[in-house]
């Protein structure tokens, strides 16, 4: 018997971080490429949060997830010493592929309320064989668990 479906908000992983000096340009704004670093870290932590980290997929199945496509839209800059959150949501899981929506937002100190959107990323991942780097089906239990976390509106 399975339990109730998780609410949409429970399907979104949140990874909080601080904008450090090393993340910024001469104007004190986060350099555009840092958003890619933050998104990567958030994806890694989202897998760890569900108990299925990358290293386990490599050890058990010789497979790993690689980025196939990234589309980024920037709305406002993150600034030095800002607290931000990267929200990761799964839009689709098929065969060997995963489509994610990642949003970088300001995060107010002591508040869990969503802050102003800074950037949005659409990320396509593909499961590949570690040795041959050829696409392979997402191994279980990753496929089932990730499919169970797809946002309902995204289907």
From TrEMBL:
The keyword Hydrolase belongs to this UniProt entry's keyword annotation: yes
Family designation = Belongs to the 4-hydroxybenzoyl-CoA thioesterase family.
NCBIfam families in the record: YbgC/FadM family acyl-CoA thioesterase
| Protein's name in the database | YbgC/FadM family acyl-CoA thioesterase
What's its EC? 3.1.2.-
* Molecular function as annotated in GO: hydrolase activity
| Keyword annotations | Hydrolase
Origin organism is Roseomonas nitratireducens
| Coiled coil region boundaries | none
Please name the PANTHER family in this protein's record. Answer: 4-HYDROXYBENZOYL-COA THIOESTERASE FAMILY MEMBER, ACYL-COA THIOESTER HYDROLASE YBGC
The answer to whether the entry has keyword Hydrolase is: yes
InterPro entries named among the record's database cross-references? 4-hydroxybenzoyl-CoA_TE, HotDog_dom_sf, YbgC/YbaW
Q: Which domain of life is it from?
A: Bacteria
């Amino acid at each position: 018997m399975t339990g109730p479906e998780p609410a949409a908000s429970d399907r979104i992983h949140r990874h909080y971080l601080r904008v450090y000096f090393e993340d910024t340009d001469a104007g004190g704004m986060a350099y555009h490429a840092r958003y890619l670093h933050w998104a990567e870290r958030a994806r890694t932590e989202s897998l760890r949060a569900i108990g299925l980290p990358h290293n386990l997929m490599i050890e058990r199945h010789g497979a790993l997830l690689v980025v196939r496509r990234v589309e980024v839209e920037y709305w406002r800059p993150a600034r030095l010493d800002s607290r931000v959150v990267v929200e990761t949501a799964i839009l689709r899981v098929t065969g060997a592929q995963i489509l994610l929506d990642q949003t970088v937002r300001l995060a107010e100190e002591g508040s869990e309320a969503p802050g102003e959107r800074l950037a949005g990323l659409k990320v396509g991942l593909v499961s590949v064989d570690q040795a041959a780097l050829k696409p392979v089906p997402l191994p279980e239990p990753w496929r089932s668990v990730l499919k169970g976390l797809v946002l309902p509106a995204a289907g």
